Amino acid sequence: MKEISRREFLIGAGAFSASFLLSKFFEISSVQAKVKPQKWPWPYEKLDPEKTAEIAYNEWYRIFCGGAVISSIFSQLAEKIGEPYASFPIDAFIIMEGGVAGWGTICGSLNGAAVVANCICGPRIAGLYDGHIIASNLMKWYSETELPIYVPKNPRANKKSIIKTVSESPLCHISVGKWMKASGHAYRSPERRDRCARVTASVAYELVKKLNTWKDGEYDEELEWYCPSDFGVTGQMNCMECHGTEIPVAPQPKK
Amino acid sequence: MKEISRREFLIGAGAFSASFLLSKFFEISSVQAKVKPQKWPWPYEKLDPEKTAEIAYNEWYRIFCGGAVISSIFSQLAEKIGEPYASFPIDAFIIMEGGVAGWGTICGSLNGAAVVANCICGPRIAGLYDGHIIASNLMKWYSETELPIYVPKNPRANKKSIIKTVSESPLCHISVGKWMKASGHAYRSPERRDRCARVTASVAYELVKKLNTWKDGEYDEELEWYCPSDFGVTGQMNCMECHGTEIPVAPQPKK
């Protein structure tokens, strides 16, 4: 798997920015005039990963994975800094639950983390790329790591120990399904719920570690996975898990 | 496939709300005190689906699928109503591109639509369920419909005609991959880009139709797909497409 250097990513982004400027000039500027310009990046103060994870664990039981990651970070920053965090509609992001409304697509903790990273570090449309890299690399970390890592102060289940699994995917269906298979616990069991709350806490912990490094000006990770560059279509890294040995070749650019 | 009646969904939600109240009472209330309470649902004025789709099509070329759906609706409401739309950090949602940072998970137009529906109609944590139902049913509609439907005023490619495909999935990788296979166009081609911009516009169109019906007090759709109830794990409806004939049975609840 090829890592994309910051330079390569920025070169691609340069072409992107140029097309943005053109399109903006011709027809889109009227749309943007109606919304308040954001000051990117948002103000950030370093947070305690442990405390953040604990909040995320408990918030899972209120607004599930996506909302919990957002709440664990934005609620602390609302207290420390105020706006724009205080007005962010955190609870609406409960919809990220179960891979968006139970459809098993992206794990909500990653979906929520992507929103957090791109608000705090800013979006690439503003010429800021760390939010994109943090969101993407967190998906790779999640896919490759034995989860859950974080042990809450007062676990609601799995009190003696918990089985850890590697999802090899950012998808809820696959991540949850592999853990259920390994543990034997049903979807609606207290053990599965505690597991997903711990995964959410583990993602919040890792995200805050990256954001703190970024705040210190020391975040220099490369983009570790960008499927369109390597395989000519969006996707994750283990094609065979769904395709078996018959992996389609993407149509190639015309010369 | 079983449809979940509003009544069944609300009964499940009732147990959920009770556990929410308990958990909130014991330990989470301090977190929520730090953020401004939202007034759900957000104020809404009916929009023109055609105009919204046209904005979404053009915004795709600026901030891609997820950001474009959010922008097409929130920018108009920012003009008509002002807050809370004007301060929403639309551009951060560019990260939903390509199934979140190019990973091919949920199509960004659906991810963005889920956020829009749950801001405007409110989240189920507030006892409001239409946002959840709209987001979920839009995913089913997307999976079953020949897309793209919307024809922009000034298409940037596919000017004479465009191939339509049914994704049978809300996932970017599958939706884009099936269209690329049917059309023969590469990922980075103008044709594929125009196709995704049109899909985004089609989703924005359909979402506004649902929101307008909701505003009129006439939105009464049932939840059409909720995998955890039927199969004991989150997921989409066509297990065999990835699993082949060896579909695992989810661990069952202990009696």
Largest interface: A-B, 99 and 99 residues
Shape of chain A: globular
Percent of residues in helices of chain A comes to 40-55%
Low-pLDDT stretches of chain A are 22-28
How do the SSEs of chain A run, as a string of H and E? HHHHHHHH
Q: Write down the overall mean pLDDT of chain A.
A: 92
Distance between the termini of chain A: 25 Å
The number of helical elements of chain A comes to 8
What would you call the structural class of chain A? mainly alpha
- Which percent band covers the strand fraction of chain A? under 5%
Q: Rounded to an integer, what's the Rg of chain A over CA atoms?
A: 19 Å
What oligomeric arrangement do these chains adopt?
A: homodimer
User: How many domains in all of chain A?
Assistant: 1
Describe the fold and architecture.
2 copies of one chain form a homodimer. By secondary structure, chain A is mainly α. Chain A has one domain. Chain A is 53% helix and 0% strand. Chain A has 8 helices and no strands. The longest helix of chain A has 32 residues, at 49-80. At the A-B interface, helix 1, helix 2, helix 3, helix 4 and helix 5 of A face helix 1, helix 2, helix 3, helix 4 and helix 5 of B.
Which descriptors apply to this entry?
8 helices; 53% helix; 255 residues; mainly alpha; homodimer
Write a brief caption for the model:
With 255 residues, the first copy, chain A, is mostly helical. Chain A is 53% helix and 0% strand.
